[in-house]
Write a structure and sequence with these properties.
The chain is an alpha/beta fold. The protein is built from 27 helices and 21 strands. Strand 3 and strand 4 form a beta hairpin. The C terminus is likely disordered. Bound molecules: glutamine and zinc ion. Glutamine (GLN) binds next to loops.
Length: about 775
């Protein structure tokens, strides 16, 4: 008899109840007891759902008031000493770790593997001590037991915990803390055992990463130690194949192993070969990273034989925690029925597991209706005219090297662009957005609700654009932007106008803390029925004699921040989007826009987890960008923008995008980030951000001049632009104007030094 379970489910609640309760608590509108009541309701509903679907036990410990890694910091009693907390503390303290307080900045946050979820980064020092901290996990186990469920607690494994943590002082290796950490894990396991827990899921997703020999060999040591607790451990790996870590994982002294059979589909045979005789194998057969229905018949065909062999040692599961997909299609009343029938959110994925389990154990005829409905939905999707557009396919097939390169090399283009725009040395610009004021948001909301006519909405946005252009003109910026007033979100804005995209009403997934995002769904071939930005940009250009920079989101970023098709490679979808963006670039050029920025803030985060897969990704990603950018004349200047990246390991691929100008975030790293560009001899022009837009602080001119001087030591001064780190949409107008005035002054001061001959620069001073 096959079993079924989940590695974790969304903790946000079907209608983002946790978010609203958290935020009310932070505002002081509700007390801790009220927040805890909401949390408990979400957990109970999640367990009830798993139980009702006939899953074997319920998963406990996937809930967190902010983040599971932070929960482990609390559980392991290792909150950063700078907060001055004891080993055990309350919920208000917990939130301070996540959000900071008057005395301490918040713990750092970073992306969880290649997902869009952000975890809080544990801070480790050579003297970090671990001990049993807060009791919340044990409380939740008891809570599940009291409600009559059989809990399977989930822990983040000790190696993943250490690996994802940050060394907060130099000259020590966080792996050295393992021996101090393991006894606390053993205590946790012992306590769970005493509570009557049979299985503990222990997540070690770093097994899907490139690990050094040192980390790989630590697994054996760690799991021998944990094994002595006498608890049945299910070691879970996910987000990719195990590859050279496969033997490490399969030889550990644990009672079961979970593998990702979606991303690691190709190595299943090897996993089975090496699976020790008595071990449980949990197979992640339902995609936990995407929203499409599972091909149930294919899973049954593929695993029937294995089920015969393993019997109740075969567990069925989603590939990873379901926290990366939205909660339930039941909350999507307005999604069109045809598309909805192709989808499965977390709730529906649990139903799929239930159907699979019944089919394995009771025969396919026991769920004949479910299987038939599943097969029909899949067939309908495969055949749908809404998915396949012959014109898009034909166009993609006709793409050649003519389309993925500019007409001339950078040097020629640069000369033409300089002659055309006659910009001063150290030209100033911004990254695109200006403050999204409450007035803008309310006009957009009223327009969407039909309270504002299209004409009135257009007029309102034009007023905002005119204001932004006038302010920039007055500040003396050199290359202006229209300010993106009309855009709700840099991906959604384009997705809403492109064919092949759908938008859900309630498809929220947690991004971090109380923040959720609603990624668009790319379901079909992508094309651009009509111009998307030309009218706004042309209007903005009509208001000024300065060049107006057109503003677009790039193909890789649109892809990366959406749920994508699983019926064709990501690269194909990216190239389709690239052609759509290319159409927009060409139309902007025809409308007289000479400078066009194609933002790619997600370029680096699209990197595969394994380095061996990078080259392939970077090849199609840079090609997608070039296809989007290469339909224009040499005299048209293409910019791109990336934020908060570590660039150094992908500089050749950034150069391969061949943008005439790249703007990047550098101010917080004090221009250190730029050194890589200098060492690499990055050939094109660069705008290193000179001030941090995440802070309301207005930087002074001297600060920015110093940063620019520093930049000019590693980048040829004639290739330097002057701009903030990123868009200004989250800022207010007063601080924005003050900061930009100082920034323009910094550029002018540099121009004077330059004119005084301090730097040999061939760009003219205007
Ligand atoms: N053009 C966008 C803006 O200014 C870029 C945002 C981003 O890089 N994430 O808002
Ligand atoms: Zn940015």
């Amino acid at each position: 008899m096959a079993l079924a379970h989940v590695l974790g489910v969304p903790r946000i609640g079907p209608n983002r109840e946790l978010k609203f309760a958290q935020e009310s608590f932070w505002r002081g509108d509700i007390d801790e007891a009220a927040l805890r009541t909401v949390a408990s309701g979400i957990r109970q509903a999640n367990w009830q759902r798993q139980h009702a679907a006939g899953l074997d036990g319920v998963t406990v410990g996937d809930f967190a008031f902010y983040d599971p890694m932070l929960n482990h910091v609390a559980l392991l009693g290792c909150a950063p000493a700078r907060f001055g907390l004891g080993a055990s503390f309350g919920l208000a303290d917990y939130f301070q770790l996540a959000r900071g307080n008057a005395a301490c900045h918040a713990m750092e946050m970073t992306k969880w593997f290649d997902t869009n979820y952000h975890y809080l980064v544990p801070e480790l020092k050579p003297d970090t001590q671990f001990s049993l901290g807060v009791d919340w996990l044990f409380d939740e186990v008891a809570e599940a037991q009291t409600a009559g469920f059989k809990p399977k607690p989930v822990l983040i494994g000790p190696l993943t915990f250490l690996h994802l943590a940050k060394e907060k002082s130099a000259g020590f290796n966080r792996l050295d803390l393992l021996d101090r950490l393991l006894p606390v894990y053993a205590q946790i396991l012992a306590r769970l055992k005493a509570m009557g827990v049979e299985w503990v899921q222990i997540d070690e997703p770093i097994l899907a990463l490139d690990l050094s020999a040192e980390w790989r060999s630590a697994f054996e040591r760690a799991y021998h130690a944990l094994n002595s607790a006498g608890m049945k451990l299910l070691l879970a790996s996910y987000f990719g194949p195990l590859r050279e870590n496969l033997l490490v994982a399969l030889k550990l002294p644990v009672a079961g192993v979970h593998v990702d059979c979606v991303r690691g589909a190709d190595e299943l045979a090897q996993v089975i070969d090496w699976l020790p005789a008595t071990r449980v194998l949990s197979v992640g057969v339902v995609d936990g990273r995407n929203i499409w229905k599972t091909d149930l018949a294919a899973v049954l065909d593929r695993f029937d034989g294995l089920h015969q062999r393993l019997g109740d040692r075969l567990w069925l599961a989603p590939s990873c925690s379901l926290q990366h997909v939205p909660v339930s299609l039941a909350n999507e009343p307005r999604l069109d029925p045809e598309l909805k029938n192709w989808l499965a959110y977390a709730d529906e994925k649990i139903s799929e597991l239930s159907t699979l389990k019944t089919a394995f154990n009771g025969g396919r005829q026991a769920v004949a209706a479910e299987l038939a409905a599943n097969a029909a939905a899949l067939a309908a999707r495969r055949a749908s005219a809404r998915v396949h557009d012959a014109a898009v396919a034909a166009r993609l097939a006709a793409v050649t090297t003519v389309h993925d390169a500019r007409n001339s090399g950078f040097a020629l283009r640069q000369a033409e662009q300089r002659a055309r725009f006659r910009l001063p040395a150290f030209p100033t610009t911004t990254i695109g957005s200006f403050p999204q004021t409450p007035a803008i948001r309310s006009a957009r909301a009223r327009f969407k609700q039909g309270e504002l006519s299209a004409a009135d909405y257009t007029a309102a946005m034009q007023r905002e654009i005119a204001h932004a252009v006038a302010r920039q003109d007055a500040l003396g910026l050199d290359v202006l932007v229209h300010g993106e007033a009309e855009r709700n979100d840099m991906v959604e804005y384009f997705g809403e106008q492109l064919a092949g995209f759908a938008f859900s009403q309630n498809g929220w997934v947690q991004s971090y803390g109380s923040r959720c995002v609603k990624p668009p769904i790319i379901f079909g071939d992508v094309s651009r029925p009509a111009a998307m930005t030309v009218a706004w940009t042309r209007y903005a250009q009509s208001l000024t004699a300065k060049p107006m920079k057109g503003m677009l989101t790039g193909p890789v970023t649109i892809l990366q921040w959406s749920f994508v098709r699983d019926d064709q490679p990501r690269a194909t979808t990216a190239l389709q989007i690239a052609l759509a963006i290319r159409d927009e670039v060409v139309d902007l050029e025809s409308a007289g826009i000479g400078i066009i920025q194609i933002d790619e803030p997600a370029y680096r985060e699209g990197l595969p987890l394994r380095q061996a897969d990078w080259a392939h990704y970077l090849d199609w990603a840079s090609r997608a960008f070039r296809i989007s950018a290469s339909g224009v004349a040499d005299a048209t200047q293409i910019h791109t923008h990336m934020c908060y990246s570590e660039f150094n390991d992908i500089l050749p691929a950034i150069a391969a995008m061949d943008a005439d100008v790249i703007t990047i975030e550098t101010s917080r790293s004090d221009m250190e980030l730029l050194r890589g560009f200098g060492d690499f001899n990055y050939p094109n022009e660069i705008g290193p951000g000179v001030y941090d837009i995440h802070s309301p602080r207005v930087p002074d001119t001297a600060d920015m001049t110093r940063l620019l001087e520093k930049a000019a030591q590693v980048i040829a001064p004639q290739n330097l632009w002057v701009n903030p780190d990123c868009g200004l949409k989250t800022r207010g107008w007063a601080e924005t104007e003050a900061a930009l005035a100082n920034m323009v002054a910094a550029a002018r001061s540099l121009r004077q030094q330059h004119a005084a001959g301090e730097w040999k620069c061939n760009r003219e001073i205007v």
